[in-house]
Amino acid sequence: MSSLAVVAWALYLLVAFVLRSVVQRRRTGSAGFVGVKDPPLSLRWMGGALFVVAFVLSGAAPALALAGAARPVPALDRPLVAALGALLFAAGLPLTLWSQLAMGASWRIGVDPGARTALVTAGPFRQVRNPIFTAMVLAVLGIALMAPSALALAAVAALVVAVEIQVRLVEEPYLARVHGGEYLRYAARAGRFLPGIGRLRARA
User: N or C: which end of the chain has fewer CB within 10 A?
Assistant: First the structure.
C-alpha cells in the first residue's frame, strides 16, 4: 500500500496546510504561518524543527518504499496492519480539518508571543485541548502503518516528540499567560490530547 500512503501524505499536506492557509488568508488577510520564534538550537526551536522533519520523513518513507529503497518492518508488513493504517488516516484527516476550522481566526502554525487570540473551547476543543495534534499523530501513524518502514516509524516518533515540546513548553505557557484563570479552568476539565487525560489542576 505504499502508493496509497504517498497519496494520503500528499492529500494531508494539501488539506491541512495549503487549503487551510488559503482559507485563513481569505478570512483574516494572513496565512496563519507564524513559525518558530525561539533561538536556534534551543529545545523549543528543535521542537519546531522536528515538525518539519516528521512531515518530510512521513512523505519520503512511503515514496522510498514504493521505489524499493526502504524495506518494510517484517512484523508490521501485514494486510491487517495496512488496513488499520488506512482507517487511522481516514479518522485523522477529517478530525484535523474539523479542529482547524473550529479555531476560526485563532488558527496559527506556531505561536506569536505578542499576539492575543481567542481561547477556543467549542467543537472538538470542548473535551480535548489539542485535537489538531491528536489528529496529526493519527494521520501520520496511519501513513506509517500503510508502508511500515523504519523511516516511517521514525517520522511518527519525531512528530510525537515535536508535539510534546510544542504543547508543554510553548502553547500551554502562552495560553496560561494570555488567558490566565480562564485557560486554567478550561485545562482542568479538558484533556491534553484525549478526553479526561492530561487535565491540569485548577488553581485558585
Answer: C
Closest CA to 1 of 96, 76, 93: 76
The CA distance from 133 to 36, in Å, is 17
Distance CA 79, CA 38 (A): 43
Total Cβ atoms within 10 A of residue 57: 22
Strand partners for 72: 149
Q: How far is CA 113 from CA 28, 38, 168, in A?
A: 19, 10, 15
Return the C-alpha cell found at 105. Answer: 481566526
Q: Which residue has the cell 482559507?
A: 23
Nearest by Cα to 129 from 196, 179, 177, 180: 196
Angular region, 98: left φ>0, alpha ψ -120 to 50, beta rest: alpha
Q: pLDDT tens for residues 63-88?
A: 999 999 989 999 999 999 999 999 99
In whole angstroms, give the CA distance from residue 62 to residue 44. Answer: 28
Check if the beta carbon of residue 130 is closer than 8 Å to that of residue 44: no
**Gyration radius of the chain's alpha carbons:** 17
Report the SS3 class of residue 36.
coil
Q: Which three cell numbers stand for residue 156?
A: 511518527
Q: Which run of H or E residues covers position 55?
A: helix 43-66
**What is the reported pTM?**
0.92
